[in-house]
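The step that takes the researchers longest sounds almost clerical: writing a folded protein down as plain text. The outcome of that step, for a single protein, is printed below.
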Amino acid sequence: MNAHKIVSPAEWLEARKRFLAEEKAFTRARDRLSAARRDLPWVRVEKNYVFDTPQGKKTLADLFDGRSQLIVQHFMFAPDWTDGCKSCSFWADGYNGFVVHLRQRDANFVAVSRAPLTKLEAYAKRLSWNFPWVSSGDGDFSYDFNVSFHQDGKGPKDVTYNFTPTKSGMTDLPGISVFYRDADGAIYHTYSAYARGLDMMNAAYHYLDLTPKGRNEEGLPYPMDWVRIHDRYETP
């Protein structure tokens, strides 16, 4: 960092303007990609999924809460885990407060995990989270949307994750799925994303991307090795 190029304010402004042109090109490309995403074909959801919620049993249709669009955050929290995934928790620290805004645009948001509702509620209370969070329990939902996998503890198994056959010893992985409900009540799966496809949903990472050190993860055993559940950092 100490060897970084230092220039005059005028030179800095010229460099910033040149980079602004690249940023604008990226923004336009992202807008085109977002439009193409909205144009993807849909598939009708035929199965009747049921979830445990603080208000009792609810179907997938109920989770729309009167809206036509539903965003589901697949949060890694297996039934036998004591805590939720630390990386999913890193993402979830940004969910408080934004659900009310999504609802103004005809979209609802809910996190879904396989852990029992009592565990989810206790964990949310501990971390001061208030976003909607429900349990898919032992139902098919998380398996059908390729974020949960049957494992026998005997080593990695063949699974499909991020639309690609791979081997994994994990029972749960992260993802996002989006659904649409039409005026007749039919539900359609419109989009899913996994792995690095979730990156843009983490505001903290993108703020770090603005800094001189960036995410500062080079040399770590894996990129999020530094992340902790937020009440377990040694210093706030």
